[in-house]
Design brief:
This protein is mainly alpha-helical. The protein contains 17 helices and no strands. Helix 9 runs parallel beside helix 15 and helix 12 runs antiparallel to helix 16. The two termini are 36 Å apart.
Length: 432
């Protein structure tokens, strides 16, 4: 799951404390959003044993979300533009609540598939609307820090889902209990926007809070006018996330069956990625701002990612080592990759660039979730045949190699005559 960049807004001057209250409230919707998305992974083996789901079925639940996300991204910010951030967050938050409730209320794979599709339709535009709201409140102030805090709270939702076999052990007697908890937490997706609406209504009356500017939308005519550096960043984005998110879809099941871990321990290992990103991503961002060398850092992150899947598949090192390597890569590459787009694309086309990049990412993630599930089924990956996971891990490794290739090509271009300053621009240089 990804967040779109903030939109341009009119400046407002409510008190600082009021702005941070708005940030906390609206970020709770992101927490619920991310929790519901990641609620399937901890019960993947239970769905298989109790409801006879295949790994392909489990992968399809994630693929359905991504397909819906692609449809939403094609629509862009039109709905948010027309109805505003308050009504949009309430509308899309309500869709997320309905999706989570439907997912918990059925044993049918096809109904769950519909529920996950609905979640994608609600979740991605909810992120757009929340990002737009943050821009309205923090533009020209502490926007970058506020955006980072929002993402940290969102990733806490992923961590909470991964750790749910520990803190909600009582619910894991079967597959149903964890989904009921997810449905309850999804209420934040609606309650937080309702409270946010009251806060913004008060701010309009007291401080004359302005409307946000246009949100990002995909302009198809601009697709063919981006430079090679942008497409290399897109290539890195889609291969990197296609190796990360589909792995997380099956990771807990893989850790339980291949490493004979308890569900609680497997969830804790899977939580390393979002937990490390919560802490390290802002720090890596500060480091890159000071020293530059952006494509070099992306190369290093991709190099760390490439071997981790084979290290796990063949248990060549203790599990903590490749998981830690993946955590560093997951913290480092996004901290550099998303801001890098602002250097290689002119400002007036950033909205189109980010929307296109996110769309391509979702297409890749959708395909990989299905491919890995199908591969696990084809090779009978299970607790009695843990070697059946190896072919899927080779596929992940191939995508890690492709991510490294794109990073190398990007560094080669950016250190040549067609560079855009990815390696040289620093915070001090911009301030000079």
């Amino acid at each position: 799951m990804t967040s779109l960049p903030p939109a341009v807004t009119s400046p407002v001057e409510p008190p600082r404390g009021y702005r941070w209250l708005v940030l906390v409230v609206i970020s709770l919707a992101m927490y619920g959003n991310y929790y519901v998305y990641d609620s399937i992974a901890p019960i993947a083996d239970l769905l298989k044993s109790s409801l006879a789901f295949s790994d392909e079925n489990i992968g399809a639940l994630y693929t359905a979300y991504s397909i819906a996300a692609v449809i939403v991204l094609l629509l862009g910010g039109i709905i948010v533009d027309r109805f505003g951030t308050v009504r949009s967050t309430i509308l899309f938050g309500a869709i997320c609540v309905v999706a989570a409730g439907l997912n918990a209320a059925t044993e049918s794979f096809h109904v769950m598939l519909v529920a996950r599709f609905l979640l994608g339709l609600g979740s991605e535009p909810l992120i757009v609307a929340i990002t737009t709201a943050l821009a309205k409140w923090f533009k020209g102030k502490e926007l970058s820090f506020a955006f980072g805090i929002n993402l940290t709270v969102a990733r806490l939702g992923s961590v909470s889902a991964d750790w749910s076999p520990t803190w909600a052990r009582f619910a894991y007697k079967d597959w149903h209990g964890p989904l009921v908890i997810a449905a309850a937490i999804s209420a934040l997706c609606l309650l937080a926007p309702l409270v946010y609406g009251m806060l913004e209504g008060h701010a309009r009356r007291r401080w004359g809070l302005g409307r946000a500017g246009a949100t990002d939308r995909l302009v198809l005519a601009d697709v063919f006018r981006f430079n090679l550096s942008f497409w290399l960043v897109v290539g890195l984005c889609v291969t990197f996330y296609s190796a990360i998110f589909p792995f997380r879809s099956f990771a807990i099941k893989f850790f339980i069956e291949a490493f004979e871990l308890t569900r609680e321990a497997a969830g804790r290992y899977n939580s390393v990625l979002p937990l490390s990103a919560m802490v390290a991503t802002p720090l890596f961002g500060l480091l890159v701002d000071k020293v530059g060398k952006r494509s070099l850092f992306m190369m290093f992150g991709a190099l760390l990612l490439m071997p981790v899947y084979l290290l796990m598949a063949y248990q060549l090192l203790p599990l903590g080592v490749p998981v830690a390597m993946m955590g560093v890569a997951f913290s480092l590459i996004p901290a550099v990759m998303w801001p890098a787009v602002a250097y290689v694309v002119e400002e007036r086309r950033l909205g189109t660039a980010y929307a296109l990049m996110t769309l391509v990412q979702q297409v890749g993630v959708a395909g990989m979730n299905w491919v890995i599930g199908r591969t696990n089924d084809a090779f009978a990956a299970s607790a009695t045949n843990p070697a059946g996971y190896a072919p899927g891990m080779w596929i992940f490794s191939l995508f890690g190699f492709l991510a490294l290739l794109f990073a190398v090509l990007l560094r080669r271009r950016e250190t040549g005559p067609h560079g855009h300053g990815l390696e040289t621009i620093t915070a001090s240089a911009r301030g000079a």
